[in-house]
């Protein structure tokens, strides 16, 4: 019998399309599925994941491709597939339920719920046969189908009670105190307790990059002079750059490089090989902060490597940025099977066959190559005889060991890397999730704009502008001020979430700082006004994740954690402080301050939950400081003054361009602009007064260095 697609065939999400030919009668999340559940009286089975999720692929192969399991699922449930990256608010709601009832979470997320969307049972990955103490998916289906038929009233009552509890979690707190130095110190203390002094990072395996934590450490160090905070951040970033989590084969102008999602071990050696845009965007910003704080070229080079990866391998023809590359790819040996990390792994023999003897010895010592394989942890036996590239020894140690100059070491390693890169390019590539998400693009636009200033690379600024123009042309309605979340295959769809507004505003403000083009500031202001109208709770002083008129989720939630992606509330607090400083609109400072205060109780309970919000709090409590630059845009002398300002790690510093074209937005700056049509100048305003015009880099550097 010829296979027939299910309803997912009409979707645009790569994740949903991966399941379009399953024998499961999948429906996308939406009213049609809900109506079918109500009409048939069947419960809904929700499976949530994303296209580059390894265990999502495993569960699909084991259970969703199995005809008997699919037939049972279709007969007793209404199966619904959700791309968590398209609908993070829906995923967040039900993940909260799974974590509360099982003590753990993760994807694929599996939730059974009533036809009116109230959950009664959940988990994550269920195997096809019972193992690791986890029941089989089929046994769970049979048990729940039996309960639904025999004991439905109890399930309905339980689901109603659970939904009431979730509604309680979603309800914003109204009484909040101040967020103070006490919270920042408690966050630092919690991070110090979890810090791995030998390998960097926080906690044990698995280790996740958490750039919001690094931003807090850099901010805290800049504000207080705490050297240990700075050292923890720098040490972690050095260890990550040397680890297998960092693709060591990035070749400038050709591609690859960048960072994988997380490390399965404490050494940053064995990654979960998927690469996400949001990780690389935030890590690029973290490495730029490290470069600001230390001046070490390692950090600048690592940021360049991330940008090279994104611009070569993750950029759409239109200039926007794709979402992710998969952990799995076809076995290069031609078995026809997909394996995790297959694209990235090497045998000693493969390397020796591509390099000459001297290169093989040097590269082997540099990257820890072993005949038996070099993975320190291999729980599923996938890496036997395989090597994950990492930096086992730095260039200076190799120079001493091999008795040749450091520069020669670098040249030979570059040659070896290029040979391996060219060979790897002939392998089957990991799957690409080519949807374009507004929030993740905003993070990348921000990082590129900052990179253009700190690295002096104009092409990074042009890439940021091109991506921003695509997002604004395709996913933004300038009349209403509304954003959409996702673009793929010619379709812009899904109402924008708070994160889309917050992250795009962040990107546009950084574009303004890097380019001094007023159009980016104007759009950021328009989006900020719209975000308050659609997401802000005036009574509680906090942003919901979902707009008031978006009915795609049963409960509007509030993001209260800076995890893999920063909370929309943290990013928004930073944005509104910055907009208030630029425009003088004090009502926006009030929005930011109320947002920060809203989370005082959450920070009492978990001081390290919102490190980026604590960065905003530090900026809000610091004396205002701004630089107004004047002169002809594009003048090299002005560019040098701007670059000098951005070398300083001062999160509270606001940059404004004295441009006559934005008279209606910044009248005072426009007045200064009219006075300086020729020689560039910088006006530093801090501590309630403005210094006279500064016209050279040395004087500006000294003035910024003297700020308290």
TrEMBL record:
Protein name: Thioredoxin domain-containing protein
Transmembrane segments: none
Taxonomic classification: Bacteria, Pseudomonadati, Chlorobiota, Chlorobiia, Chlorobiales
Domain Spermatogenesis-associated protein 20-like TRX: residue ranges: 6-166
Family annotation (SUPFAM superfamilies): Six-hairpin glycosidases (SSF48208), Thioredoxin-like (SSF52833)
Entry's Gene Ontology BP terms: carbohydrate metabolic process
CDD domains according to UniProt: SSP411
């Amino acid at each position: 019998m010829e296979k027939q697609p299910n309803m997912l065939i009409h979707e645009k999400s790569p994740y949903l399309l991966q399941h379009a030919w399953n024998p499961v009668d999948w429906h996308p999340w939406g009213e049609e599925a809900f109506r079918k559940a109500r009409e048939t009286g069947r419960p809904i089975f929700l499976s949530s994941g994303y296209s580059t999720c390894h265990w999502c692929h495993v569960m699909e192969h084991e259970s969703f491709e199995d005809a008997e399991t699919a037939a049972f699922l279709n007969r007793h449930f209404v199966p619904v597939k959700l791309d968590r990256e398209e609908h993070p608010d829906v995923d967040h709601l039900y993940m909260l339920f799974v974590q509360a009832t099982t003590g753990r979470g993760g994807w694929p997320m599996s939730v059974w719920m009533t036809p009116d969307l109230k959950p009664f049972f959940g988990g994550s990955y269920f195997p096809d046969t019972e193992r690791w103490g986890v029941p089989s998916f089929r046994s769970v289906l049979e048990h729940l189908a039996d309960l639904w038929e025999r004991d439905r009233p109890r399930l309905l009552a339980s689901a109603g009670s659970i939904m009431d509890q979730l509604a309680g979690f979603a309800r914003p707190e109204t009484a909040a105190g101040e967020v103070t130095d006490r919270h920042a110190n408690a966050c630092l203390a919690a991070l110090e307790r979890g810090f791995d002094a030998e390998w960097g990072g926080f906690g044990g395996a698995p280790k996740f990059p958490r750039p919001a934590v690094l931003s807090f450490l850099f901010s805290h160090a800049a504000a207080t002079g705490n050297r240990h905070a700075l050292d923890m951040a720098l040490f972690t970033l050095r260890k990550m750059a040397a680890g297998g989590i960092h693709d060591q084969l990035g070749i400038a102008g050709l591609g690859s490089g960048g960072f994988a999602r997380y490390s399965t071990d404490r050494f940053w050696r064995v990654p979960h090989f998927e690469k996400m845009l949001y990780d690389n965007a935030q890590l690029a910003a973290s490495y730029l902060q490290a470069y600001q704080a230390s001046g070490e070229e390692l950090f600048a080079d690592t940021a360049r490597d991330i940008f090279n990866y994104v611009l070569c391998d993750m950029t759409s023809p239109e200039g926007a940025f794709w979402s992710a590359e998969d952990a799995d790819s076809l076995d290069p040996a031609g078995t026809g099977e997909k394996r995790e990390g297959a694209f990235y792994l090497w045998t000693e023999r493969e390397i020796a066959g591509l390099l000459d003897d001297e290169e093989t010895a040097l590269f082997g010592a540099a990257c820890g190559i072993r005949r038996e394989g070099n993975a320190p942890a291999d729980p599923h036996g996938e890496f036997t005889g395989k090597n994950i590239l990492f930096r086992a020894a730095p260039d200076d140690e190799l120079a001493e060991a091999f008795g040749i100059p450091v520069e020669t070491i670098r040249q030979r390693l570059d040659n070896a890397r290029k040979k391996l890169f060219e060979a790897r390019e002939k392998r089957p590539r990991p799957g690409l999730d080519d949807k374009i998400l507004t929030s993740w693009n905003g993070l990348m636009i921000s990082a590129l704009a900052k990179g253009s200033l700190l690295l002096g690379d104009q092409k990074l600024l042009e890439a940021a502008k091109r991506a921003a123009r695509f997002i604004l042309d395709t996913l933004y309605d300038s009349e209403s001020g509304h954003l959409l979340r996702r673009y793929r295959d010619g379709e812009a769809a899904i109402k924008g979430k708070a994160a889309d507004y917050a992250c795009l505003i962040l990107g546009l403000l950084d574009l303004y700082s890097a380019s001094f083009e007023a159009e980016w500031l104007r759009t950021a202001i328009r989006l900020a006004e719209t975000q308050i109208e659609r997401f802000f709770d005036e009574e509680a002083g906090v942003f919901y994740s979902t707009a008031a008129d978006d009915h795609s989720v049963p409960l509007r939630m509030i993001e209260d954690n800076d995890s893999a992606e920063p909370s929309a509330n943290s990013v928004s607090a930073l944005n509104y402080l910055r907009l208030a400083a630029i425009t003088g609109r004090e009502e926006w400072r009030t929005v930011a301050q109320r947002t920060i205060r809203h989370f005082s109780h959450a920070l009492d309970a978990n001081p390290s939950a919102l490190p980026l919000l604590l960065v905003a709090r530090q900026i809000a409590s610091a004396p205002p400081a701004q630089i107004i630059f004047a002169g002809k845009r594009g003048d090299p002398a002005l560019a040098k003054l701007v670059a000098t300002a951005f070398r300083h790690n001062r999160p509270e510093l606001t940059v404004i361009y004295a441009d006559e074209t934005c008279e209606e937005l910044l009248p005072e700056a426009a007045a200064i602009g009219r006075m300086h049509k020729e020689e560039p100048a910088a006006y530093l305003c801090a501590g309630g007064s403005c210094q006279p015009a500064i016209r050279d880099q040395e004087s500006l550097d000294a003035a910024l260095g003297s700020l308290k």
